[in-house]
Amino acid sequence: MRNESLTVVDNRTGKTYQLPIHHGSIHALDLRQMKVSEDDFGLVSYDPALTNTASCESRITFIDGDGGILLYRGYPIEQLAEMSTYLETAYLILRGELPTQAQLKDWKWNITHHTIFHENVKKFMDGFHHDAHPMGMLVSTVGALSTFYPDAKAINDPNSRLKQTYRLIGKMPTLAAFAYRHSLGMPYAYPDNDLSYTGNFLNMLFKMTEVKYQPDPVLERALDVLFILHADHEQNCSTNAMRSVGSSHADPFSATAAATAALYGPLHGGANEEVVKMLAEIGSVSHIPEYMARVKAGEVKLMGFGHRVYKNYDPRARIIKRVAEEVFEVTGRNPLIDVAIELEHIALDDDYFIKRKLYPNVDFYSGIIYQAIGFPLDMFPVLFAIPRTSGWIAQWEEMLLDPEQKIARPRQIYLGHGPRDYAPLDRR
Ligand code: ACO
User: Fold this and answer.
1) At a CB cut-off of 8 Å and minimum separation 6, what does 205 contact?
2) Residue 60 CA, ligand 1 centroid: distance in Å
């Protein structure tokens, strides 16, 4: 039998400690017993940006960054993208198992019947300036929903949690579509319960004067696949925000607003927007070498490349590249795809990228598809937030039900001044 423990000698004191290893990790609190004196606080681990700290045990999503593998509840992302739908995948992520036909029917019915919100929410939308970023509108309005549903505060009631789950998954596309229509000054289009999740979303975005909107089935399916690919991704920045805010027992609408805010940043959900801007700036294949020189000189980053976890091809990027070709059959070819493909080709052959294990991530091709479908750039992170909502809620609920979890509260290494006396203003 292998000895699952770590022997540590504290050279400051000469003492030896045995730390148990569980699932390839040591418990950070086991370090606290290592002290140089009785009144010493004890050793802490220092991990800025949490690059090597597991903050929870989870059974939802598995990533093998070196192998380029992504599993939701054990199912490979490639199989789900091929055979599942977003709503079925959301059920899987939240409940742990694929639904039966009856369970899926009930799930879809409940989400479909929670897509409308109180008319007052429209007043929030109307209050935004015409050029407000839709992600800013989404952050604010999803947070505002907590004031419409005070029952969401009952986070320990499983029935309440389920109701908020229906509401959040159902209403995020409506909020997103209303934000989009507001930015165009167009009347809001209400949900159509006959349509699929993504079909209805396209309806709320693009319906004009027709009595019934008919989504293009290729675009509807492409969006559904993109939603599957974005549904969860273990402990990323926004999920960490969801868990962290949720750990104070804030209601799930407030926690989702925090997660959406985290996703807004250009290093996370904002990256696909940056990719398209970058490709447009490069403009043509002939300008790529010049741009690559700037990347290697550290002047700019190659947006859509690199990942904290994947040090091999991001499996989602491979699927998206295929979906892009299907979408272009309907929309016509987005010329930026040629720049992207050549950029990838050159990068994958270049020592700078090989040495740093930098490969295309999920955002490298998704923006090109969104642009071809007709979404403006600033809607891209919104298109990420909608499907990630199911992952956020699953992670939030897992955190709440985990007896080991408490309010999230990291330590710090204080390097500032020691105690000193306040000097009145006239003596400074
Ligand atoms: N272009 C050029 N160089 C890069 C890039 C990039 N996109 N990403 C990382 N590097 C370089 C760094 O400069 C660093 O080089 P050095 O060792 O010479 O200093 C090395 O690769 C390691 O990079 P880190 O920044 O330490 O990697 P980290 O894991 O912290 O960052 C991140 C990951 C934030 C995703 C980063 O790769 C990045 O900024 N990429 C571009 C933005 C992007 O596409 N984000 C989307 C991520 S996917 C998602 O959130 C859904």
Assistant:
1) 177, 180, 181, 189
2) 25
pTM: 0.92
Residues of the chain with pLDDT under 50: none
pLDDT in tens, 45-99: 999 999 999 999 999 999 998 898 999 999 999 999 999 999 999 999 999 999 9
Active-site amino acid positions? 268, 307, 363
Contact 310, 359 (CB under 8 A): yes
Kindly give the interhelix angle for 158-184 and 101-112, rounded to the nearest 10 degrees: 50
Residue 25 Cα, ligand 1 centroid: separation in angstroms? 25
Integer Cα distance of 121 and 107 in angstroms: 25
* Tens-place pLDDT, residues 214-232: 999 999 999 999 999 999 9
Please tell me if the CB atom of residue 267 comes closer than 6 angstroms to any atom of ligand 1: yes
